[in-house]
């Protein structure tokens, strides 16, 4: 039997922001028609979260449900609970056209904290990260550098990011480099035109 471990094995960096491995996180992809009342009812019953609106997230990487695309949700839960929760979802969905997949070991979650979190993300993600355009509860699937990521604000100065496990080391190093002490550009400190 193997001992589960994260791709980043507890990595931590402190600069203008802190970049931290979130540890083992349960992740379950749910695919289907997000407008199907039966799917929405089953998901809400099992997860305790209603199906979020487009580009929204309910909760965080410890207990949350994220809109990932027009036909995909990502459920975040305790790592050890993911197989049981996935089985409950399959049972609740019954004959509803859907797919449920545990992705916990295929993804990594990174936590970001600090006054310039938005600036660090803006250095590599083509997303308008101004507070009036990207608030807590919003999620974006995008890229950071040239790799696929999804991220969301968990507070005014904190965010979480999920990426493929295979690129977690690159994403962590990219974030660490982009948040070297003194590297903030002050973009959000001045009025935008």
TrEMBL record:
Gene3D superfamilies named among the record's database cross-references: Heterotetrameric sarcosine oxidase, Probable tRNA modification gtpase trme, domain 1
Protein name: Sarcosine oxidase subunit gamma
SUPFAM superfamilies assigned to the protein according to its UniProt record, in alphabetical order: Folate-binding domain
Source superkingdom: Bacteria
Organism: Pontivivens marinum
Pfam families membership: SoxG
Alphabetized InterPro entries for the sequence: SoxG, TrmE/GcvT-like
